Amino acid sequence: MAGFLDRAKEQAQRGIAQGKEKVEEVQAQRAGNDLLRRLGAAYYAEQKGTGSAQEVQRALAAVQEHVAQNGDGFLKS
Known about the structure:
The protein is mainly α. The protein contains two helices and no strands. It has helices spanning 2-48, 53-70. It starts with a helix and ends in a 7-residue tail after the last helix. The relative contact order is 0.12.
């Protein structure tokens, strides 16, 4: 009986770990998508004449940092 409970506990822990990984992946993807929206908005504002090149560069740097930390999976949709 103890062996069965140990196996069940291990399976539950693996499931929890997989769930946490998936949540972290989804959060990173959402953050990446938000950064891309900000980059697009900064570029649009610059093109309209209401934004600046510095804002675009800051937004681009944020996207690049996110890619360096989390990969570019959020770019593929």
